[in-house]
């Protein structure tokens, strides 16, 4: 592998005496869509928190494009090219779709707001206040806001949560297409296995804070450890 877009080495996090993340290694190639899956409490959100700096790692290292960013605060990691979108939407309901994108563009190092509006199919509703658009469009706006500035690496927390099956699949296709076109590396925490197996190049499986398996969707789907720990019950 050439230099990974993002790499975690021996990432660990404890809460009190409890090990939420225990020595996890991760290497994600540039432009890859990586799924992060595992049962509830496996450590998926903690891994995202440690990568973005929201939670400190204990002894581990985070590298972005080969640069050690472990000592940087979340804002500085964001400026370095690491974006994150949360399950809860970050949208301001009083502003129009266009105003929010333009505002985000002004704050970003690269103002690609207009390009993002068009690419995410939001140009036609740019004049509407976010309070008046559908939940599905709001989720797309969330994704759009995370893509303003064209981050190197985008961490997404359940982008398909609350969407209908059709909306989830459309969101997944859009994400895959944008990752390819803009060479954005995506780490996706998602419980919708159709989305994960449909668009991820590789999948990391966490269980009890540890790395249980990593591989292509076909390898993960047939891994007996993954079936026993997660897929057998999740499917
Ligand atoms: N701030 C915190 N304080 C105490 N314990 C925490 C905290 N954050 C997470 N944990 C614990 O760490 C473990 C891993 O949690 P985490 O949220 O990372 O799991 P997850 O895989 O994202 O789960 P889910 O799929 O339910 O979102 C859980 O047992 C959780 O209770």
Please give the structural blueprint:
Elements: E1 6-15, E2 18-28, E3 33-37, H1 44-52, E4 61-64, E5 67-68, H2 74-79, E6 82-85, H3 97-107, H4 113-119, H5 135-147, E7 153-157, H6 165-182, E8 185-189, H7 193-199, E9 202-207, E10 210-215, H8 217-221, H9 224-234
Parallel strand pairs: 3-8, 3-9, 6-7, 7-8
Antiparallel strand pairs: 1-2, 1-4, 4-5, 9-10
Helix pairs in contact: 3-4, 6-7
Bound molecules: adenosine-5'-triphosphate.
Organism: Xanthobacter flavus
GO molecular function: ATP binding; ATP hydrolysis activity
Domain ABC transporter: 6-233
Structure at a glance:
Belongs to the ABC transporter superfamily. With 235 residues, this protein is α/β, with parallel strands linked by helices.
Structure write-up:
Belongs to the ABC transporter superfamily. With 235 residues, the chain is an alpha/beta fold. It has a domain at 1-79 and 185-235: Rossmann fold (3-Layer(aba) Sandwich), CATH 3.40.50. Helices cover 37% and strands 25% of the residues. The protein has 9 helices and 10 strands. Strands 6-7-8-3-9-10 form a 6-stranded mixed beta sheet, with helices on both faces. A 4-stranded antiparallel beta sheet has the order 2-1-4-5, covered by helices on one side. The longest helix is centred in the C-terminal third of the chain and has 18 residues, at 165-182. The chain binds adenosine-5'-triphosphate. Adenosine-5'-triphosphate binds at residues 15, 20, 38, 40-46.
């Amino acid at each position: 592998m050439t230099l990974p877009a993002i790499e975690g080495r021996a990432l660990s996090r404890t809460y009190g005496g409890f090990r939420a993340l225990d020595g996890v290694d991760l290497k994600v190639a540039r432009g890859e869509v990586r799924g992060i899956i595992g049962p509830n409490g496996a450590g998926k959100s903690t891994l995202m928190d440690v990568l973005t700096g929201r939670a400190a790692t204990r002894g581990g290292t985070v590298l972005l494009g080969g640069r050690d960013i472990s000592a940087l605060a979340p804002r500085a990691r964001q400026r370095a090219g690491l974006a994150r979108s949360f399950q809860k939407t970050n949208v301001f309901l009083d502003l129009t779709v266009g105003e929010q994108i333009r505002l985000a563009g002004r704050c970003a190092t690269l103002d690609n707001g207009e390009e993002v509006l068009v690419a995410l199919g939001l140009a036609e509703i740019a004049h509407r206040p976010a309070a008046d658009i559908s939940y599905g469009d709001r989720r797309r706006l969330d994704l759009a806001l995370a893509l303003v500035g064209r981050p190197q690496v985008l961490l997404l927390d359940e982008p398909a949560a609350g969407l209908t099956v059709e909306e989830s699949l459309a969101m997944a296709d859009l994400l895959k297409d944008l990752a390819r076109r803009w060479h954005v590396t995506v780490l996706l925490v998602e419980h919708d296995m159709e989305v994960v197996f449909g668009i991820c190049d590789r999948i990391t499986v966490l269980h009890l804070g540890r790395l249980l398996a990593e591989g292509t969707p076909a390898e993960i789907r047939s891994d007996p450890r993954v079936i026993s720990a997660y897929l057998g019950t999740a499917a």
